[in-house]
Protein: Glycine dehydrogenase (decarboxylating)
Organism: Floridaenema aerugineum BLCC-F46
Amino acid sequence: MATSSPSTKSSLQVGQTDSFATRHIGPSPEEIKQMLELLGLSSLDELIEKTIPQAIRISRPLQLPTAQSEYTALANLKEIASKNQIFRSFIGMGYSDCITPPVILRNILENPGWYTAYTPYQAEIAQGRLEALLNFQTMIIELTGLEIANASLLDEATAAAEAMTLSYGVSKNKAKAFFVSQDCHPQTIEVVQTRAYPLGIEVIVGNHENFAFDQPIFGALLQYPATDGTIYDYRKFIEQAHKVGALVTVAADILSLTLLTPPGEFGADIAVGNTQRFGVPLGYGGPHAAYFATKEEFKRQVPGRIVGVSKDANGKPALRLALQTREQHIRREKATSNICTAQVLLAVIASMYAVYHGAAGIKRIAGNIHQLTNLLAEGLKQLGYKITGEYFFDTIRVDLGSRSLTEILQAAEVQQINLRVFDDKSVGISLDETTTIKDLQDIWQIFALGEDLPFNAAEFVGVIHECVGVIHELPLHIPNSLTRNSNYLTHPVFNQYHSETELLRYLHRLQAKDLSLTTSMIPLGSCTMKLNSTAEMIPVTWAEFGKIHPFAPLSQTRGYQVMFQQLEEWLAEITGFAAVSLQPNAGSQGEYAGLLVIREYHENRGENHRNVCLIPQSAHGTNPASAVMCGLKVVPINCDEQGNIDVADLKNKAEKHSKELAALMVTYPSTHGVFESEIKDICEIVHSHGGQVYMDGANMNAQVGLCRPGDFGADVCHLNLHKTFCIPHGGGGPGMGPIAVSSHLAPFLPSHSVVKMGEQTGIGAVSAAPWGSSSILPISWMYIAMMGGEGLTEATKVAILNANYMARRLQDYYPVLYKGNNGFVAHECILDLRSLKKSAAIEVDDIAKRLMDYGFHAPTVSWPVAGTVMVEPTESESKAELDRFCDAMIAIRQEIAEIETGKVDAENNVLKNAPHTAETLITDDWNRPYSRTQAAYPAPWLKEYKYWPPVSRIDNAFGDRNFVCSCLPMSAYNE
Ligand SMILES: *Cc1c(COP(=O)(O)O)cnc(C)c1O
């Protein structure tokens, strides 16, 4: 055996720990030195001194636990997770346990090829997830019987609230009241109430069976089946509602619609719901994809994103996000909704569940559950219980008669079973895909309260067991008038991938069409596409986190509580705030919640006339959209030539609106990629007029460990955990947008009526689940635990270094639009491409599409300044990758120069024709004025590895003129 050299030996020390930070941070210490050299700097600290105003830098290191290795952090989190108890939950209320098909679990949910992609703004390199989303929409359209559907919303409760505001917007009857059936899930009612309040909408919670329509309403919300399981025929109600000009929304259980008449067939205008039970783990509340379906006439008012069919430059069908002009980033304060990040990854999983099972498979699952519920009810009747409601799908309400609720619950506890308690006289039981005969026996035992069962369970079950799966042979507890007769999931995609081999290849084929972080950097400014490490992702699919119902008793979720508390403490330390709410499940929702908190604060002080929200023109579209949802009036603030807030304009407007000033919303560092030195003064101006400062924390990746919003004057901020804190974007969700607040705002943080949390003075629930999308919080926990305070701070410094390195390498080719006082940018930079339009007729889009030929995703396009791109490399990209991207951009600049000199045609060139697909290149009649090599292999690394865009440039306008948002017949592809 070889002996080690003395030098190696002496460098070995006991107790040296493995550092995750060195793997999270892309550039090595040697590379950092080289990059600093290019910038003419001697150290990272010098860079920070020249970038972040002295006045706001923190003077002490972050007080966080010491960094743990991946192995140790996983072990520690496992220990915390094991404090959660996994009971069988028959609680229902819109959440059902289910089986994630293993092929989908491993190849989508646990697969970075799917979860690290961004929202499909660059549609040509996102055809895979766009197809999966189109399948999702098709599934929703067919199951609900409505005409159009979007590509997911955040949860059922917020989807219902969105339905309310859509109805409010389009109803012509001028009413100000919204009827909500008392049979809706309680968390849905609460979120709708929270949303209605600041808009001055009155919510009438009542009994749909005797509502007399004696008060004008613009809309109504019904639950189908009702929260206690009862199936009502809503036709009469809907008829009456339509007579008074009101729109009706039906919140429907997606699985029940395989057996029940869909809402679209009995007159509903909108259907919303949760698709969680299609293969997505409970996860203590999320993430799950909500759906939203409606009539085509409302397509311009639909919240969220819609995938639509269009065609590419060769006339081939191609997908992209449709009707983009509806969305908040264009319509701003006139937007119909503030939704940005939604639940794409979970929508993809739900759609694949339908692809995996097909119509027959899903109907079989629904049939099984229904028959088990029948069986359960029969047994309980034999035990002397009354089942309320003649008709049900999977949920029954059991009348306890003279039995004691306490005894029933004690017996359930022994069996580790959760039931739903309605009141001390009745409980609910909701069955799901995982329910077995054994579960029924256990439930009967509970209700027998120690007595022997009066029937032979095995025999009783035996008779019926034979029939399970053959649902026609048993009487259904579904009224004839509501039995589904129409077909669904008839498209080939739901019928041809039922062997695992076929499905695996389909999933892989779609994945291969998309460009994710597994291919190359995605330098989207403001989106912070950093590493989502595997160690961070692993806990997400642990059963201890996944198999827990959001309304399980707190005694069973101690592990979650420990994790929440630690994460809240860490985030409070990082932001310099006193308290954190983990409820909002996207940045947009954090903005909304934070502004509501501010509103509530003013109201509490008798200042509810404060309704003006100042927002700089450079703000993200979600800001004005959120302000309007809170009933605030948006007053825009100008930006100066350096891209900073025009402080004089701010002063004027704050003075002018002094009496009504509610808040300023400000992004820091600004969306222009600069640390404004005046931020402290800006906060003071607002405070001096009695306003509060809301900081949009999307750019927190430039602050962690270096400065804290709580210190420099903000009162509340949200954090996009799917940006700064490593939750992957999932192709457009999930995300988490917790808010952090100063102590004077803490009493107003979100509360929840089902799981008691927050204070009496809280704003109510803003999400269906008390801690939002709980099951992805371990990702951020792992990140902070593995980085420690020092690692996080180093990451921020390197994020700023990477951005400055790129800015410096590119500035001779593309002007950097804004810089700070010392000539440095923050963690991102804007490259100005506007002059190229004049000099070469080149648009930003041409460069974005040409980057695809080089194997890259474009930076953020035309935001916050039209005609520019915003580049954000993050700390996770190595110098080699930054150089590769810069080389691509420089090479493209040379291609543009050839147009400028007239050497190359201005219309027919590599940029205008980009991206180039293999199909267009491998043709017998190549007749373009450039070579195929120039088109497809313009850089040396492409010979090593080439990502091929699957379609050519997509015609966006065509798709909006010919709106289609469900799967095309196969014949469309054969032409
Ligand atoms: C991403 C972003 C948002 C919206 O956050 P979501 O999580 O997508 O809802 C808001 N503001 C800025 C500046 C952002 O970059």
The pocket of pyridoxal-5'-phosphate is lined by residues 340-341, 526, 586-588, 620, 622, 667, 671, 696, 698, 720, 735, 737 (CB under 6 Å). Residues 1-9, 467-472 have pLDDT under 50 and may be disordered.
